[in-house]
Design brief:
Helix 2 (about 35-45) packs parallel to helix 3 (about 65-70). This protein starts with a strand and ends with a helix. Strands 6, 7, 8, 9, 10 and 11 form a 6-stranded mixed β-sheet that branches. Strand 1, helix 1 (about 10-25) and strand 2 form a beta-alpha-beta unit. It has 2 domains: about 1-125, Response regulator (Rossmann fold, 3-Layer(aba) Sandwich); about 155-330, Reverse transcriptase/Diguanylate cyclase domain (Alpha-Beta Plaits), CATH 3.30.70.270. The chain contains 12 helices and 11 strands. By secondary structure, it is of the alpha/beta class.
Length: about 325
């Protein structure tokens, strides 16, 4: 039986959530009035939680910390987490998403909006469970042994798999939710830049899914280290591409950024690796800004990835025109 967990230190909010959820047919709901109480319920394993609602501002362990603690559990690495907040300042929202939040609702709670967000969360949870069950069956049939505990061991190149345990890196769904929930004015103050693995198809074909996933994680960490001094959010959007959301006013030198990233990748052993012929060279695309005419997150991300695609194609064409000796040195 799938169960919801609602956490808020305000008894009135819990009573309101209980009334709303009951009116929408949700009977399997557990309530907690503190982060510590909620974490104890999660760790006990008595309930199979399918969605979490966490208040951001609570005494003791607040919702942001609780979100991170839940995400640290292998069982709930991808379980939808919806934050409840009366605070509209961007800093608290950023902190929640960076600790693993899937979405958020602002107080006072709108019944229709809650129903819509919960519906999407439950669909996401069901999809994840179906995918995980298929992976388990496949592994048991093919190998006759225990399966890997995370679904990223089987995926296609285009899949926007989640990258865990790298600071300021969030999932692609979470990235779009984050941008969607910003006011139009705050969204307009965003820009984006794409980082693209140059020979992604070849790299994907010559490695196992698990090896490729580990490369993706290392590249994400290299990108974070290169951008550490900037206030950015990073997401792997699939097809060997990462998008960083950054302040619109931030002026980046793409060539210098690419050079610094190349040095970091070499330091990580992702260029000229010793164990396997790794070539995770990353192209840095031209930064773009949110458009006044189309302020959708999808449009911003698409424009950023398109810029990287063009630059990657130009770089490949130049490489083919160079003499082999010069190409090899480059």
């Amino acid at each position: 039986m799938m169960t919801l967990l609602v956490v808020d230190d305000d008894r009135n909010i819990l009573d309101l959530m209980a009334a709303i959820l009951a009116s929408q047919g949700h009977e399997d709901v557990v309530y907690a009035q503190s982060g510590e109480e909620a974490l104890a319920l999660v760790n006990q394993g008595q309930y199979k939680f399918s969605t979490f609602f966490l208040d951001i501002q609570m005494p003791g362990m607040d919702g942001v910390e609780l979100c991170g603690r839940i995400r640290a559990s292998a069982e709930h690495r991808r379980t939808p987490i919806i934050m409840l907040t009366s605070m509209r300042d961007k800093a608290h929202v950023d902190a929640a998403f960076l600790r693993g939040a899937t979405d958020y609702l602002t107080k006072p709670i709108d019944t229709t909006e809650l129903a819509a967000r919960l519906h999407v969360a439950q669909l996401l949870f069901d999809e994840q469970q179906t995918s995980l069950s298929a992976i388990r069956r496949e592994e048991n049939l093919r190998l006759g042994m225990s399966y890997k505990s995370y679904s990223e061991t089987h995926f296609d190149l285009n899949d926007a798999v989640s990258i865990y345990d790298v600071p300021r890196v969030i999932g692609s769904l979470e990235m779009e939710n984050y941008l969607h929930r910003l006011s139009r004015g705050k969204r307009f103050m965003c820009g984006a830049i794409c980082f693209q693995i140059q020979k992604r198809e070849r790299l994907f074909s010559m490695t196992s899914p698990l090896e490729f996933y580990e490369i993706l994680t290392d590249v994400a960490e290299a990108i974070f280290e290169t951008l550490r001094s900037y206030n950015v959010m990073i997401s792997y959007v699939g097809n060997g591409q990462y998008v960083a959301i950054l302040p619109r006013t931030l002026q980046l030198n793409e060539e210098e950024l690419e050079l610094n990233l190349s040095l970091k990748l070499r330091e990580f052993g992702l260029i000229d690796g010793d164990t396997v012929p790794v070539d995770a060279t990353v192209i840095v695309g031209e930064s773009v800004r949110m458009s006044m005419f189309d302020a959708s997150p999808h449009a911003l991300i698409a424009r950023a990835t398109a810029k990287a695609e063009v630059k990657c194609a130009e770089r490949s064409s130049m490489s083919r025109l160079l003499p082999k000796s010069m190409s090899a040195r480059g």
